[in-house]
Specification:
It is built from 3 helices and 7 strands; from the N terminus they run βαβααβββββ. It is α+β, with helices and mostly antiparallel strands. The N and C termini lie far apart (42 Å). It comes from Halorubrum trueperi.
Length: 87
């Protein structure tokens, strides 16, 4: 199992939370999370079979662009929406 750190902005909460999810790849993690908790996170991260342009996914601190990237048992997966703004 891996732990996904969920930012509140992507899951409609008021604070970042963590959830343990089974899966050998990034894709499997998001699919299994959707099966257990609904598709809100998956829909926020994946579009057209790829990670959305302004979403960053890290496995144990390494940026991941490929949904088929391996996720080792016990890994920490972070989902971080890109930040922008200001003038």
């Amino acid at each position: 199992m891996a732990t996904i750190k969920l930012p509140a902005v992507l899951v409609g909460g008021s604070a970042t939370s963590e959830v343990d999810v089974a899966g050998d790849t990034v894709r499997e993690l998001f699919e299994n999370h959707a099966d257990e908790h609904g598709s809100e996170l998956k829909d926020s991260v994946i579009e057209g079979g790829e990670i959305k342009e302004f979403i960053n996914v890290y496995v144990d601190g390494t940026p991941i662009d490929d949904l088929d990237a391996d996720v080792p048992d016990g890994a920490q997966v972070r989902v971080i929406p890109a930040a922008s703004g200001g003038r």
